[in-house]
User: Fold this.
Amino acid sequence: MSSLAAVSLVGIVAVQFLGAYGAAPSTASPPASAPIAVAAPPAPAVAAAPAGGAPRVLDADTPATTRAGHRFIAPAGWSLRVAGTATILESPEGGSWVAFVDTEGVAEDAALAAAWAAFPPGGPRALRSSTAEPNRDGWRDQRTHTYQTSPDERRTVTARTMRHGERWTVRIADLANTVASKREAQIKLLFEELLPSGYVRETFAGRTAHKLDASRLAVLTGFITRAQRTLEVPGVSIGIVQDGKVVLAAGFGVREHGKPEPVDADTRYLVASNTKSLTTLMLGKLVDEGKLTWETPVATALPAFVLGDAETTRSVQIKHLVCACTGLPRLDVEWLMGPERAPATLTLEILARMRPTSKFGEMYQYSNPIAAAAGLVGGHVAFPALELGAAYDRAMQTRVFGPLGMARTTLDFAIATRGNYARPHAFDHEGKLARVDMAHNLPIRAVRPAGGAWSTVNDLLAYVQMELARGTLRDGRRYISEGVLAARQAEQVRTGKASWYGMGLDVDTSWGTPMVFHGGRMRGYRTNMVWFPEHGVGAVVLTNADSGNVLMDAFPRRLAEVLFDGNPEADDAVAAAAAATRVSLAASRQLLEIPASAQVLAGLAARYRNDVLGEIRVRRTAAGGELELRSVRRAPLAARANPDGTTTIVGLSPGWSPELLVGTRDGRSTLTLRAGQHEYVFRELD
Assistant:
């Protein structure tokens, strides 16, 4: 449910990090949200990478060039050096690299081979898959190559070939998984700010948004129907507001694949991390009421709040719970595999085990448990006599859902999954669209302030309209103060050259006009809401398939293209992403042994346990074997032979296929689950 992950394709397709805010506010009525401004630091001189010898360690994000003069931004703390045709950056932890290698006058295959030869840490690896990417940012004929690694390497290796003119540039990324997780925003900066020499990105600064008349809306709905078909998304619900009026609120497709019931603007979807924006709105209401401030120490508002690091516990204020800037790493597996029907206090239990992996405020690290704590704190402040979860639910109903008229929005799964609601879908291991077991999504209930709300296009449009109207409701009544509302959009931590995370909201000024947004991801659901405050335009897109990930991020780009006569990019991005998904699924399937062989099953125990994540069971069946663990109900068991001779077992469950490395410790069988910066070892039980 990561926000930065939620803009991964927005970063690739829709949000091109190019410049600063600067367009004049729209004169549309109602007034747009308060202008978003950021004081940009003076641009440092372009760095010359040291050729050979000792690398240069960078004190700040630094513009630099490759040997061919292509521009990029080297992140703070990384080291920079040149080795022949390769410009190499190494992470502060060491052992993780991004390299840019320039070639001339050779074919793509030769350029790729030359790049690996020029990259000193590199070595021969088996290619897992190769996928075409859309033309973008002056680069043409782009292709991503993914290489096989073994679990114990704990790293991901890719290369991107790209052409500008007659020259090829190859971007190699050889990254430890822990570094890729921790430094997600820095790596994104490296990737997205690599621009060909002399290339100038498109900007919408100074342009006036077109009125979304029938012809322009037809362009947008045509895009939706094409993308829905290409991506195999059963149902999509879309809404757009402009100048205080709903200009589109419609559904495309069905609630469930293979069944006729249609989706519409009142169909409920699990909106996942979009809940964070609503949670911070509830906190803002409490600030307006004088019950807390953004700077209130969390431990004084909720004494039960304790982190695994005492100094960080003392430092955390209310605003830090939702800023993705405390240094706490992403940690989802402990609630995704939490006890069935776990109470809201599971959030506090998880936080008590969490320690920061970067300095407070140093870099963006998205973390759901600490965002969930924000809602629990707000609920406790509003209704201190209630259980934490119930207090949050009541605070959201009385401060957000009720006042905004969001009558079909709920935090109750039982209510949400009756009548007009969209069922979740994902591709299975054979690449076929399948229903996702709702059991995969039930664990979000324990951390629901971070992602547990169900809502509709019509309800979320009421929220977006309030944001665009600077805190007034449709009937003109003041709902929340402008200052408190705007504070949620103020920069807390940078996510890119011209983007930042506020409090449960992303802001990007890359197109020359601010875009405020937040995305959401849970199993089988992909959702997004976005608005352009200078132009009085906002949109909501809700989908009921994992492949909607592409659509939820490409739609804002298509909307901007229609509003500002932008270069057409969204359609190509959808087509390329759909093709890449098919290639990736086929490559993964080719490496799997289905069912797992008798030899693999013979080496597994019947039961394993981890003190935090509970029990895993391996069951022998006539068809081979099944894997059972929390939130996964008896998934068929597959196996994958790794390049180093080890074996990984995989539970084949649409929406989530957990991978566990088979091993031994002290003469007993083990299964190891790795997730980002965390590792969990399950030990054989007697």
